[in-house]
Amino acid sequence: RQEKLKGKHHAPGSKAWFTAIKEHKRFAELKIERDNYIVETSARAKFWGTSFNSIEHREGMEKLDKGKSVSKSNKKLEQLEQEFAQFKIDYFSVMNISADHYRYKGHTSDDTKELEL
Known about the structure:
Layout: H1 2-6, H2 15-48, H3 55-65, H4 68-86, H5 91-94, H6 100-103, H7 110-116
């Protein structure tokens, strides 16, 4: 019971003592490494104007903007712009003259007349 309360004690120089010291050193190094990571990440987050929790997501989104997907989307956008510039609609080829709204030319509502002015 006493070992659980106060921690296990080993005789100095014993194999168990060296193992416990190595474990203690490993945990201390991990803690220092984690503290350094927190400091560096907090500095990056401050630079980006965001929080510690969302900095990795923010940087990941920024990396996406520099990837291949941007060049592909730019090529697609240029292609669509060229197609749009060449696109000419022949309105009268798609217009149905026998439709109701073409037959009653003199019956334009007042609201429509206001919009046309």
